[in-house]
Amino acid sequence: MPELPEVEALAAYLRERAVGHTVDRFEVASFSALKTYDPAPSAVAGLPITGAGRHGKFLDVGLGDDLHLVVHLARAGWLHYRDSFKSPAPLKPGSGPIALRVRLDDGSGFDLTEAGTQKSLAAYLVRDPVTEVPGVSRLGPDALAVSLPEFTERIRGRKGQIKGVLTDQEVLAGIGNAYSDEILHAARLSPFALTGKLTDEQIVTLYEAMRAIETDAVERSVGQKAAELKGEKRAGMRVHARTGLPCPVCGDTVREVSFADKSLQYCPACQTGGKPLADRRLSKLVR
Ligand SMILES: [Zn+2]
Question: Residue 58 Cα, ligand 1 centroid: separation in angstroms?
Answer without folding.
Answer: 32
